[in-house]
Amino acid sequence: MNGLRAVALALIAATNLAGAACGGAGEPEPEVRLATEAAGTHTRVTLIPAGHVKLNARLKPALELADGSVLRFDSARLTADSAYFAEPPSALLPGRHRRVRGILRASICENDAPVCRALVLEL
Fold first, then answer.
1. How would you class 67 by CB atoms within 10 Å of its CB: exposed for 0-12, middle for 13-18, buried for 19 or more?
2. 37-62: per-residue pLDDT in tens?
C-alpha cells in the first residue's frame, strides 16, 4: 500500500508542477481577457482569447455598459472562412477609462470543438 501511496503523491506533485508552469498555482488560463489602452481621448478595448480558444466572428462580441449602450468588437482580419477573428477584435470606448465595467457577451470555440458556446462575463 505504501508503494501505491507514493505513486499517487508523485502524480499529485507532478500535476501541481505542471499547473504552476502553465500560469500559476493550478489556476486555469482565462478563456478571454480584456486589454485597454489609450486611443487619443478615448479608450481602445481589445478581447484577447486564450491559446485554446477562437472568437466567433459571425456573432460579434458585445460589451453591454451600465448606461445601456453596447460596444461591438470587430477586426478587419478574419479566417479564410470568415467564421473567426484572425486577430483580437477591438472596440473604441468614448472617454478615458482606467477600468471597464459591464457585461461581456461572446461566442467562443475551443480549437478542436465542432460547436461554439456562449460566454457571459460580468466585468
1. exposed
2. 999 999 999 999 999 999 999 999 99
Whether 65 and 114 have beta carbons less than 8 Å apart is answered as no
Coil/strand/helix, residue 23: coil
For 1-28, what is each residue's pLDDT tens digit?
444 444 333 434 444 444 444 555 567 7
pTM of the model: 0.75
Determine the 3-state secondary structure of 60 from DSSP: coil
For residues 69 and 45, give the distance between their C-alpha atoms in angstroms, rounded to a whole number: 15
C-alpha cell read off for 36: 485597454
Question: How many Å apart are CA 41 and CA 56, to the nearest integer?
Answer: 29
**79: which 3 cell numbers?**
479566417
Residue partners of 48: CB distance under 8 A and separation at least 6:
32, 33, 34, 35, 88
Phi, psi of 27 (to 5 degrees): -80, 135
Residue located via cell numbers 472617454: 95
Whether the CB-CB separation of 62 and 26 falls below 8 Å is answered with no
